């Protein structure tokens, strides 16, 4: 039977290895992960689920709110991959029954989604990757005092290289690529500073664990055993062989395992000037995360 005890949440910024870690930890028979839900995030970034509920559902205590909520969730309106694939990700009738006899709130909706998602996959524990933007991490601690927060991070130079390569496509003209790369440069610099402050504030919290992408790729078994110990999970050797996905730099194919080449690829993907500028802007932040180059 699925339990809401000790949910596991992967938090952090984009391009930090969160998807790889989610696949690794999902290899266990006990733990399920819901994909990104965008429950709450800054309005300048995306329209989150809370804003869509306010706009399309209204008062969650009003008559007919559950029906309007379900219509919204399955409408394709909410932002993100999960909501575009919700018909196969989440059984509507199971969710309706789960939410039927309880007060509706963004918290109870989140719990219902995680529980139904896990039950559909025969998993006993619930979890989610990036359910909220990292700036709302305190909500997770307030809603789930026994949760396990895994904060994924990565060298900001590599994060920028990956993010820029993802969005600045080669078939765009030079001006468009330059503008997109500038936007992503701003985004990643904001992300680096913000997540460093999150880490500084929570690093001594017993529910919190920092996980560096470089450590997972460089020494996966040791790092996964550490993460499993923190999250009260049983280590499974299958965790070491997640299905690979194409990176923002290249197509990987259908292999399994970790891509060790991703550790240094940023050095040829961005200019030395850009790398030095990021290093200068985030000297203190990088030190907080344990990066020296």
Describe this protein's structure.
With 293 residues, the protein is an alpha/beta fold. The protein has a domain at 3-155 and 209-258. Helix content is 49%, strand content 9%. The protein is built from 15 helices and four strands. A four-stranded parallel beta sheet has the order 2-1-3-4, sandwiched between helices. Helix 6 packs across helix 7 (106-120) and helix 10 crosses helix 15 (283-289). The N and C termini lie far apart (47 Å).
What is the gist of this entry?
This protein has helices at residues 18-25, 49-56, 65-73, 81-84, 86-89, 92-100, 106-120, 137-143, 156-167, 174-202, 213-218, 220-231, 266-269, 272-281, 283-289; strands at 3-12, 125-129, 148-153, 208-212.
Tag the structure with descriptive keywords.
293 residues; 4-stranded parallel beta sheet
Strand and helix layout:
Layout: E1 3-12, H1 18-25, H2 49-56, H3 65-73, H4 81-84, H5 86-89, H6 92-100, H7 106-120, E2 125-129, H8 137-143, E3 148-153, H9 156-167, H10 174-202, E4 208-212, H11 213-218, H12 220-231, H13 266-269, H14 272-281, H15 283-289
Helix pairs in contact: 6-7, 9-10, 10-15
> By helix and strand content, what is the structural category?
alpha/beta
Low-pLDDT stretches are 246-252
> How many alpha or pi helices?
15
Biggest sheet overview: 4 strands, parallel
Instruction: Write out the strand line-up for the largest beta sheet, numbering strands in chain order.
Output: 2-1-3-4
Q: C-alpha Rg, in Å? A: 20 Å
**Would you tell me the overall average pLDDT?**
93
